[in-house]
Amino acid sequence: MEEKVNNILGFNPSHHGSVCLLQKGDIKAFIEEERITRQKYKGYPFKSFINLLQNYEINHLAWASPGLLYPINHLEYDHFLENSIPIWLLLASSYQSSQNIDCSDLSIEFHHTVHAAHAFYNSGFDEALAIVVDGSGSGIKKDYQNKEHKSSYKCSYPDNFIPVEKLSFGRNSPNKEYVSDCRSYEGITHYLGWNRNEAGKTMGLSSYGKYDKNIPSFLGKQKHKVWKNIWDDPESLGDLELNISNFPYLKLKTNPKEWHKDPSKITDLEKNIAWRIQYDTQKHIGDFIERSIKKTGLKKVCCSGGYFLNCVANYHFKKRFPDIEFYFEPVSNDAGTAIGASKLVWHHVTQDTTIRPQKSVYYGPEYTKEQLLKDIQKYI
Questions:
Q1: Section 253-278 average pLDDT
Q2: What is the CATH topology of the domain spanning 124-331?
Q3: Do domains 1-63+74-109+333-380 and 124-331 have the same CATH topology?
Q4: pLDDT (average), residues 229-245
Q5: Omega before 158 within 30 of 0, i.e. cis
Q6: Which of helix, strand or coil describes residue 164?
Q7: Under a CB-based contact definition with an 8 Å cutoff, are residues 333 and 66 in contact?
Q8: Measuring CA to CA, how many Å separate 230 from each of 14, 171, 180, 234, 321?
Q9: Given this structure, which CATH class describes domain 1-63+74-109+333-380?
Q10: Among the ranges given (34-38, 101-105, 125-129), the one the predictor scored with the smallest mean pLDDT
């Protein structure tokens, strides 16, 4: 009997919690939980998850494997299944016990594979190289001491994602990387007084900075001296700390909170620190992209993972590789993995080869003109 595949519910329970409803291969709805709870970066998308279960008969659940709060890999599948998945299965069975939902058909994919699928299926390319860069993906060793942070895949329809190169960071990293590019960017963002998720502010500030010979590379040979807690567990959400004792020049003269409110108090040091981390990361990642292009010969490249929210770097890559056709996924943070997971399940189960290029990112609720005007009146 042909398997029924109409509605696929993809969800990301990690930070940037989100859900996606895929109907016969097309996105019917997508929303981040923070839009409902009004809590920034909210994980556990319970409200949106339950709403879709109540209103649609779901045939498949697609778990977008989280990489930060719940790192997983095939070596720890049983432990993960035992401790995390039942929460969502319980919700599903509670709301759709009479609607033939198959809770055993829970599709689990590695974090970076889901990112790659999201970018590829939205790109409109029939074959492409996918580049994924984020702070920390799935564990690649049984002891969890290494996390993927840069990956590339050769992608083709319906569901072929062949790894080209994967780089990890951690105590025992085989490629000798002990801190990821994104973790370093987050560390500088925190040093400049912002939340680690506010790296976009560091990106903006970098445009006002310039090269300063006294500021060391945050990713080069000096990285072991630059970062104070570089050997912390990669799974930790703690921020990296600069080792000021080794580089006293980096000590800020003013509390960042002061110039956040009064830009006249900012100095060249803050601007140049931001410039340095921007330069370091786009150079490292650009080299990674170049290696992957040479290995595959592909001229179409789609990019996802939190780093590619960095529009300054994206523009740099377009200039560095003028012969490459790029697609940068707009929802490239972890929220987008709900879309990637549901699309991956669809193409895997149905073997559908239909190309559906993304034409809009407006997937949230629709409102009538009357509703909009009514809410606007509250602020007049």
A1: 95
A2: Nucleotidyltransferase; domain 5 (3.30.420)
A3: yes
A4: 65
A5: yes
A6: strand
A7: no
A8: 24, 9, 10, 9, 32
A9: alpha beta
A10: 101-105
